[in-house]
Amino acid sequence: MIAKLKGRLDSAGIDHAIIDVGGVGYLVGASSRTLAALGPVGEAVTVHTEMLVSEDSIRLVGFARGEERDWFRLLIGVQGVGSRVALAILSALEPLELHRAVAAGDKAMVARANGVGPKLALRIVNELKDKIGVAPTAAGPLGSGGVSISAGGYSADALSALQNLGFRPAEASAAVAAAEEELGEEATLDALVRLALRKAAK
To answer: Between vectors from CA 92 to CA 16 and to CA 7, what angle results, nearest 5°?
Structure first.
């Protein structure tokens, strides 16, 4: 799993950037907010990444901040929200704005993003409301819009891997939870994904 890239911004497009790391160019999809935060071409950059694995491709999505990646992981766990829609939401709303909108049940705010209709916005709000805790009101642990779950741990990576392989969010979540309980907190990501895949396939 590639979790972070540190290199030089080679070029940027409408929805992606190419990061040169030691002479190797990594193509990463990104929200408009992340692309704006990267700075000018040729400058040093660091991006947090999420690897999306499917049967016919492996893609990287990049984020200027860790909390944006955490929200991306939560969003793609909602039925009907793919990577493009998740990035559209993160382009329209900062993590803090998104946190407040979900916590308050403000589907209209979420529906501001391109490709998000009222029904999908309502589903996003309903499915994520119980996962993120109360809306942040000041700078603090959640003041930057971070989520209150351990989204940066191996369980989130394993969940993302299973969903990218086609398992439904509920199936993937149950399988990862069962694997995590069996293996314990010291489990490696590889072991967690392998066991979760076996449990999900039963």
So the answer is: 30
Residue 142 maps to a domain: no
Cβ atoms 78, 51 nearer than 8 A:
no
Q: Which residues pair with 52 in a beta bridge?
A: 59
Of 63-72, 134-143, 154-163, 169-178, the least confident: 134-143
102 assigned to some structural domain: yes
Residue 165 resides in a domain: yes
Question: In terms of domains, do 49 and 85 share one?
Answer: no
**Which domain does 97 fall in, by range?**
66-134
pLDDT in tens, 2-11: 888 999 999 9
Under 8 Å between Cβ of 71 and 158: no
Is residue 62 a contact partner of residue 28, using CB atoms and an 8 Å limit?
yes
Distances (CA, A) of 122 to 33, 108, 118, 137: 24, 8, 6, 23
Number of domains in the chain: 3
User: For the segment 89-105, what is each residue's pLDDT rounded down to a tens digit?
Assistant: 999 998 888 888 888 88
d(CA 53, CA 61): 11
CATH code where residue 33 lies: 2.40.50.140
The number of angstroms, rounded, from the C-alpha of 33 to the middle of its chain's C-alpha atoms is 14
